[in-house]
Design brief:
Length: 424
């Protein structure tokens, strides 16, 4: 069977080549260049959205809106989501209703008042009212619920202990929520949930707390939809990231204070109803994010796998050791997200792969190169990975990078703006 790639272009192309490894670059000069980190990535079949601390002024182009802290990759470029928001975005996810929800330090979304939490329906922004103070660190969703967590104790004047669920347009508590019974008199008495993840409709939370519902739980707990439960004896330190693989094994990144300096601790690993630890990768300053893909575990952060080469920021767990992801990245990683057998990587990124291909702050890595009985998926993904810039162009030669996920015959057709086939 033959896969056909059809390119509709505004200029002549003299050369096309396939990437030599499985990294995909999103490099485009002038867009999100020299900005700070991309903290969050959300990929759906139809959208790739990034958020964090960045601001791009595009006023010189009358056809593009300025980008404010959140952006979507569309038509081979990053574009604005309306007027965006007016400050940093900490977390985002797709809700069970199909809308995009974001949380952060902003007070406006789309130019309208929206404190801490907002909804994007694909066309307009909507405020999620009821938050007067605090911080939302994490948003996750299952098939029926949207969950938010952080450090807060009320929504619309009703008591919520650092976590809440949104069902059919209403906020509801998760039993007694998460509490901090023993705290330093100079610190906040409110529990701080730093991250969450969903596995088989169970919600796992980590943070600084010692009680979940009515159960004593040290810094990690599970909500099964009705009740809270502890995970063994819990974990110590300042938890930062969590993931659960298909086997139900839990992986947690934590920091611990040493002489007033926070240091990365070995990765906590829950399996066979017990906790153990996994050694850190070399030269590790911190692990910011953990992503499960089946039973595989990937980490992103600030570390270097090899001191002699620039293999940084991302690694795959192999037993009790860490292995390269085809040369890794140059920079550091803040966020990982898997969709359709592709791992999306965001952070402070300069280049990717063994050949150090330019890719500013965002990239992707193909995890599964064999997609059986799904040539439409192959074609669609390949077209999505064709990065045409600039378009139009008066350059004599344009290279287009693409990845073919399955061996077989491929036909490439080049169509100009008038619909004429100019090459194949």
């Amino acid at each position: 069977m033959k896969t056909v790639l059809t390119l509709y272009i505004l200029f002549n192309i003299n050369s096309i080549h396939c990437l030599e490894n499985d990294w995909i670059s999103f490099y485009k000069p002038g867009i999100i260049d020299n900005h700070r980190n991309i903290d969050n990535i959300l990929k759906t079949p139809d959208h790739l959205i990034i958020s964090g601390i960045f601001y791009q002024t595009l006023s010189e182009n009358p056809f593009l809106q300025d980008i404010h802290f959140i952006s979507e990759w569309k038509n081979s470029q990053f574009t604005a989501l309306g007027q965006g928001v007016n400050s940093q975005v900490h977390a985002m996810c797709k809700g069970p209703d199909g809308n995009i929800y974001i949380a952060g330090e902003f007070s406006k979304a789309g130019g309208l008042p929206a404190r801490m939490l907002a909804q994007w329906n694909g066309k307009t922004w909507k405020a999620m009212d009821g938050f007067s103070y605090g911080r939302i660190n994490s948003i996750v969703a299952d098939s029926n619920h949207l969950y938010i967590a952080g450090i807060f104790n009320d929504i619309n004047g009703k008591e919520y202990n650092s976590i809440a669920q949104y069902i059919k347009g209403k906020w509801q508590p998760l039993a007694e929520g998460i509490k901090l019974l023993h705290y330093n008199p100079y610190s906040s008495p409110i529990a701080n949930i730093t991250a969450m993840c969903v596995h088989e409709n169970d919600v796992y939370v980590i943070g600084n707390f010692d009680q979940a519902g009515k159960e004593l739980a040290r810094n990690i707990a599970k909500w099964d939809g009705k009740t809270w439960s502890a995970i063994g004896t819990g974990i110590i330190g300042y938890p930062k990231a969590i993931a659960v693989n298909h086997k139900g094994e839990i992986f947690v990144s934590t920091m611990q204070e040493n002489q007033s300096i926070l240091q990365q601790m070995p990765l906590y690993h829950w399996h066979n109803n017990t906790w153990d630890t996994i050694p850190l990768p070399p030269y590790c300053q911190q692990i910011n994010t953990i992503q499960a893909y089946g039973n595989d575990i990937y980490i992103g952060g600030d570390f270097r796998l090899d001191d002699d080469i620039d293999d940084m920021g991302i690694a795959k767990l192999n037993g009790m050791t860490w292995e390269t992801v085809e040369g890794g990245i140059v920079g550091s990683v803040q966020s990982l997200f898997v969709c359709k057998d592709t791992l999306y990587v965001g952070g402070n990124i300069k280049s990717i792969g063994t050949q150090h291909k330019p890719s500013i702050n965002i990239a992707a890595f193909v995890l599964n190169k064999t997609i059986q009985n799904d040539t439409n998926h192959i074609a669609d993904e390949s077209i999505n990975n064709l990065l045409l810039f600039p378009n139009p162009s008066n350059q004599q030669e344009i290279n287009i990078d693409f990845i073919v996920k399955k061996e077989g015959l491929i036909s490439i057709e080049i169509i100009d703006i008038k619909g004429r086939k100019i090459a194949s």
